[in-house]
Description:
Blueprint: H1 3-21, H2 24-31, E1 44-47, E2 62-63, H3 78-83, E3 87-94, E4 97-103, E5 113-114, H4 118-132, H5 152-155, H6 160-164, H7 182-187, H8 213-227, H9 232-241, E6 250-253, E7 267-269, H10 271-274, H11 276-282, E8 286-287, E9 290-291, H12 295-298, E10 306-309, E11 312-315, E12 318-321, E13 327-332, E14 336-341, E15 346-352, H13 359-376, E16 383-384
Antiparallel strand pairs: 1-6, 2-16, 3-4, 3-15, 5-7, 6-7, 8-9, 10-11, 11-12, 12-13, 13-14, 14-15
Amino acid sequence: MSKxxxxxxxxATSFFLLICASCTVTxxxxxxxxxxxxxxxxxxxxxxxxxxxxVYPREKVKISTQTSSDSVSTLSKLEExxxxxxxxxxxxxxxxxxxxxxxxxxxxxxxxxxxxxxxKSFFSVLFGCxxxxxxxxxxxxxxxxxxxxxxHGLKDTLRISxxxxxxxxxxxxxxxxxPFALHNRLYWxxxxxxxxxxxxxxxxxxxxxxxxxLDTQLLxxxxxxxxxxxxxxxxxxxKIWKPMGMEYEAVWSTDSSGKLEKVFSSLTACPIxxxxxxxxxxxxxxxxxxxxxxxxxxxxxxxxxxVYTEGIEYQKKWYYSVNEPEVQFASGxxxxxxxxxxxxxxxxxRMGSERVYPTKEWLRIFAEICSDLSSMEGQxxxxxxxx
Length: 387
């Protein structure tokens, strides 16, 4: 083999590898399942914090190993639960006071973790800010007003409300195992704006709930075009991150163009800041002496809920308990869950590198923790919870 030919083969191989590295299909095959460190793989926008920062009051709370019914309390078993479930962060806020904060050996208070689909719920708050600011007139606005590229069959029927509640009827498979599927291509960086003309409807808009990250990402395109001279990350920083006094910076991964945040999956932040979204909801849009979003946006209309699964309903990117009307939560891949019990004034955040338990089992554990805290009030206690 001649020296010149070897050089040619080397250049061709390098060029091929460079092309493959930027190909979303190849990245999907190479990296496989998504992980809580995936933010390191994507371009991102930095979200800066500012002073003064909001720091939760911390309180040493003691717990009894027994409940009022003489059963063993879930709180007393919490460390054991955390250790066996690959949980990297577990926090509890009760009545706006941080009473529990635990991190795995490789994580600390300043360790960022990908929110995955909890991002959808936090983006919903930002979208509410855009409605409050008049950037978007109403959730009844036709999607075609912002996305004129969509097919004619969608122009007269598809509304922003359908995207918020995942009733768009668009043809989209999630989860999808093929690296060529749109869902995987969007996660690994494809530019959605280039694919708007190819979107097709499977069922009429508003007819049926189907969980689709596509619907949320389309809202991201709508907000991006509404902002014009400001990125979604900049708007998020100005309307939410800085006014709430977040303690650490965050990053929001973008698609390969670097111009559109992946609003369906890829906000990455420290758990101590993520849990503040629960307090924001608990306090009806108020936080750190600021009105972040209108209470009207946060109020759920129970009569217009979409059925997610048995016992769980869905509206505007948040999940709601059917049996406990004061409970709502955000949920993401690998068991990332922000749980809010407004009646008992408890917010719980679990972040993990693996789901381990199904979501309903985590919800049961969180409900028991809230019950334990409620039964503790006014009673003598024996074991310390937060050192």
